[in-house]
């Protein structure tokens, strides 16, 4: 400190800074119903942060309207205008970083990401997948689950790693498959569960409770089980006011 006392007086005058809300960028390609679930939580101050931008690779994605309706910046970055996956992901990194996010949320972003992209946001990028991972990675999960005659299906939120749909799972919600289940009815039930668990996982991350450490994800400092936390069919149905006899 200087002997004039100037610095210490000045420091005493500085008011503690208000904590900035944690920043989220959401990537979409389509309908954006998961985005809507996050927006709804944010509007009730329950998200633990702020969605500062929504980016879509598809110019016609309905989710862009949802973003604009909520007063969130909606950015279109069409992949068809880029020669290679690497060039696109490079441009996407720039757009995302302009918004200085703490967390990147993939919400129906239908693109395979380059390793460079995944590494850039490692530990701060979440995805939601319509199956109880590790079952049914990839597409057409509901049809495949029905064809296999499984008794239980669901959805998972996971950290994104270089393995497609293979990153460590944070939370899952199960649904019991009814005897007369159709692909549409199953999709609808799974979607409702997605809208339930994604905002929870996002809030946990933004509150610092959920982290990806060297040995996998932790919640309040405790390692999560291999398939993350699991919301049973009964618990999810209760949360969603579903008729439990549906299954
Ligand atoms: C969801 O089923 C999600 O699990 C998958 O893509 C779909 C996106 O739906 N990753 P929406 O655009 O959020 O309605």
Give a concise summary.
The protein has 247 residues and is of the alpha/beta class. It is built from eight helices and eleven strands. The site of 5-O-phosphono-beta-D-ribofuranosylamine has 12 residues, from helix 2 and strand 5.
The structural domain count equals 2
Name the CATH superfamily assignment of the largest domain: Formyl transferase, N-terminal domain
Q: What is the number of E strands?
A: 11
Query: In the CATH scheme, what's the topology name of the largest domain?
Result: Rossmann fold
Between the first and last Cα atoms, what is the distance in angstroms? 70 Å
Please state the average pLDDT score. 93
Ligands bound to this protein structure: 5-O-phosphono-beta-D-ribofuranosylamine
Physical arrangement of strands within the biggest beta sheet: 3-2-1-4-5-6-7-11
Give the SSE order as H and E letters.
HEHEHEHEHEHEEHEEEEH
Count of helical stretches: 8
Low-confidence stretches are 1-6
| Beta-strand fraction estimate | 15-25%
Determine the fraction of residues in helical runs and give it as a percent range.
25-40%
Counting helices, strands and paired strands, the structural category is alpha/beta
Rg estimate, integer Å: 20 Å
CATH architectural type of the largest domain:
3-Layer(aba) Sandwich
Largest sheet: 8 strands, mixed
């Amino acid at each position: 400190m200087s002997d004039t006392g100037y610095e210490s007086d000045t420091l005493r005058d500085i008011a503690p800074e208000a904590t900035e809300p944690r920043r989220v960028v959401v990537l979409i390609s389509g309908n954006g119903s998961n985005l809507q679930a996050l927006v709804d939580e944010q509007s009730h101050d329950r998200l633990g942060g702020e969605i500062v931008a929504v980016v879509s690779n598809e110019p016609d994605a309905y989710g862009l309207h949802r973003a604009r309706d909520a007063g969130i910046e909606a950015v279109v970055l069409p992949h068809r205008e880029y020669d290679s996956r690497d060039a696109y992901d490079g441009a996407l990194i720039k757009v995302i970083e302009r918004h200085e996010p703490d967390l990147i949320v993939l919400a129906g972003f239908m693109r395979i990401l380059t390793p460079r992209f995944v590494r850039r946001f490692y530990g701060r990028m979440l995805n939601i997948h319509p199956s109880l991972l590790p079952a049914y990675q990839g597409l057409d999960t509901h049809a495949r689950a029905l064809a296999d005659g499984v008794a239980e299906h669901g959805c998972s939120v996971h950290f994104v790693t270089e393995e497609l749909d293979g990153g460590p799972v944070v939370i899952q919600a199960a649904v019991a498959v009814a005897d007369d289940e159709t692909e549409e009815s199953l999709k609808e039930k799974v979607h409702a569960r997605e809208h339930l668990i994604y905002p929870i996982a996002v809030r946990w991350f933004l509150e610092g409770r959920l982290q990806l450490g060297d040995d996998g994800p932790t919640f309040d400092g405790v390692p999560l089980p291999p398939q993350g936390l699991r919301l049973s069919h009964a618990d999810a149905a209760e949360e969603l006011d579903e008729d439990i006899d549906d299954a």
